[in-house]
Amino acid sequence: MIILNEPYVSQFLLKTAEDFGIPVVDCSPDKSMTAGFPALTEQEFVAMAQKKSPLALYCNSENSFSWLSHNFKDTEIPAMIELFKDKVQFRRLVKRLYPEFSFAEVAYEDLATFDTSKIKKPFIIKPAVGFFSMGVYKVESDRDWNDIVLSIQAEMDKVRGLYPLEVMNASKFIIEEFIKGSEYAIDAYYDSHGEPVILNILEHPFASNGDVSDRLYFTSRKIVKKHLAKFSELLAAIGAVGKIASFPIHMEVRVDESGQVIPIEVNPMRFAGWCTTDIAHYAYGINVYEMYLQQKRPDWEQILCREDKALYCIVVGDVPGDVRFQDIKKVDYPAYAANFSNLLELRKVDYKKYPVFAFAFISIADDPAVIDELLQLDTRQYIF
Q1: Could you tell me the CATH number of the domain that includes residue 125?
Q2: Domain enclosing residue 139, as ranges
Q3: Are residues 353 and 206 in the same domain?
Q4: Which of 86, 95, 186, 239 would bridge 244 by S-S if both were Cys, CB 3.0 to 4.6 A apart?
Q5: 298-338: per-residue pLDDT in tens?
Q6: Which CATH number covers residue 343?
Q7: What do you get for the CA distance between the two ends of the chain, in Å?
Q8: How many domains does the chain have?
Q9: Same domain, yes or no: 77 and 210
Q10: Which of 144, 177, 210 is the last residue of a domain?
């Protein structure tokens, strides 16, 4: 069963629901996510869900968390959402797995006076309940702190009201040690027995040492083959301590120089946001929604033996931080798309409402120079 809400629903997701007869409810304020689609009423959806056991729910957006928590308050789902969505609570959960990992909680109003001198540098600061790298900063020294606090305050003012408090809440922040290593994002679900099933693994490169943006993610057979077993072990360990079952997640991890896998955060009830999880269809022919909702597993052994050295990428057309997206008059989409020699799909986003104007799905050669070009691409030149 699928719960839809803003900010974005892909046609691929809607077609999946239609093709497989998956019940859908539209929780967006104006029911705009399912125009022309036979969605159930909220009452019909809840009544149908109460009869299903085990119950497998999927949210395309965390905007539905308040609705879900209200309508499914007698299930374990709200508690599992809170366990992962609150990054402080998640760190406490995995403390037994990573006893040496340091973190601290600080209230938003205390940021300006917080003493960072006793915190090991570098460290990461981010909202305890956040989304889309908003309010995330890397702190290299105490001298940077005041400027970073001002940047956080300005950014929080800019995005205030864009997302429900269940998705973006700047009332408290988490400070945690910086994990040096390569970053990855994992789309997976726990089946009805609590066993993890990985559906995709994406590498998340950065433009510079201080970059924390979401500009680029890519997957390949090489990446999946290298990390599938080790990431599955971590998911199993987290699922065991959290007692998780029948639950989809999008997990971010880093692999340090010694090969240790350390979780950054787990986003509950969904896969990669804004329906960018659909990249798995282009890369591997995997429909992640079908896999989870029908409790299927990818045949990774067969998929990985096929010869394909390409990287399948999600490129985020982000609005630069100093541009008020409400003031944008137009975006030159043809010029932006011309950057990609093998464009699989270009998804336009309401840039008047959100700090992003497009998501591009592309395939490229596994070439560091090409990756760097994408990371350094100045999107400002396409915004007017």
Answers
A1: 3.30.1490.20
A2: 102-177
A3: yes
A4: 239
A5: 999 999 999 899 999 999 999 988 888 778 999 999 999 99
A6: 3.30.470.20
A7: 40
A8: 3
A9: no
A10: 177
Q: Comparing C-alpha atoms, which of 235, 126, 259 is closest to residue 180?
A: 259
Q: Does 282 lie in the same domain as 238? A: yes
My answer on whether 107 and 120 are in the same domain is: yes
Distances (CA, A) of 105 to 102, 139, 252, 299, 307: 11, 15, 20, 41, 47
CB 347 within 8 A of CB 9: no
Lowest mean per-residue pLDDT among 143-147, 156-160, 250-254, 330-334: 156-160
Name the token pair of 1. 């069963």
Under a CB-based contact definition with an 8 Å cutoff, are residues 57 and 224 in contact? no
- Residue 337 belongs to some domain of the structure: yes
Could you tell me if 206 and 317 lie in one domain?
Answer: yes
For residue 241, the one-letter residue type is V
Residue count of the chain: 384
Kindly report the three-state secondary structure assignment for every residue of the chain.
CEEECCCCCCHHHHHHHHHHCCCEEECCCCCHHHCCCCCECHHHHHHHHCCCCCCCCEECCHHHHHHHHHHCCCCCHHHHHHHHHCHHHHHHHHHHCCCCCCEEEEEHHHHHHCCCCCCCCCEEEEEEECCCCCCCEEECCHHHHHHHHHHHHHHHHHHCCCCCCCCCEEEEEEEEECCCCEEEEEEEEECCCCCEEEEEEEECCCCCCCCCCCCEEEECHHHHHHHHHHHHHHHHHHHHHHCCCCEEEEEEEEECCCCCEEEEEEEECCCCCCCHHHHHHHHHCCCHHHHHHCCCCCCHHHHHCCCCCCEEEEEEEECCCCCCHHHCCCECHHHHHCCCCCEEEEEECCCCCCCEEEEEEEEECCCHHHHHHHHHCCHHHHEC
pLDDT band for position 169 (cuts 50, 70, 90): low
Whether residues 350 and 262 share a domain: the answer is yes
**325 part of a folded domain:** yes
Identify whether the C-beta of residue 343 lies closer than 8 Å to the C-beta of residue 305.
Answer: no
The better pLDDT of the pair 23, 37 is held by: 23
**Confidence band of 154 (pLDDT split at 50, 70, 90):** confident
Q: Which two tokens stand for residue 335?
A: 């010029």
Measure CA 73 to chain center. 24
Of 148, 177, 206, the position where a domain reaches its end is 177
Domain match, 76 and 54 both: yes
